[in-house]
Amino acid sequence: MAHALDLVGERWAMLVVRELLLGPKRFSDLDAGLAGASPNVLSERLRQLEQVGVVRRRRMGPPARAWVYELTEWGRELEPIMLALGTWGVRSPLLDGSGHVSVDSIVLALRTYFTTDATDWDATYEVRFDDDRFAVRVTGGAISVERGSAADPDATIATDARTFRDLLGNGPLLGELAGGAVTLTGDGAVAERLFAAVQVPGAVPAPA
Length: 208
Known about the structure:
A hairpin with a 2-residue loop joins strand 3 and strand 4. It is built from 10 helices and 7 strands.
């Protein structure tokens, strides 16, 4: 455990892993997702994670021809560890929810805390945060999330990360926000059902 923390225990290291779980990113995309980290600190963390084999850098083919960072196969094994640590942390009575909200962190929260017994639930959603697109699919009651547009979605939801976070576990709020903080097209009831199925763990009691 001590050796594992030597590899990924530096500040921002695990958050870099989080930002890459849904696919490769350019440095500028990572910088935008980790607003509290300076470019120099981010560069250093990426260099360290490359050196230990968690992250690799590669050049994308045409038409992009951009350099991106992605998790190695071994790096991807950190996913359940990172999600468990996040679930543990979200229950902290000292958690400050007013800071920067990463798009990827909120989409991962949707996937992590989605809970349903409805095995006959099949629906496709597209979630948009400005230029970011995510295809969310519920198949037989199981959820999957991929970066990119969805083909023929039942509902399309466009909003900002903080509003999306507030919708998690609160499906009926979607109707109140539609047309303002949320642009909703397609089946509103299907969209509300998605958010209502999210159960974010509650905080433990504050220390006396």
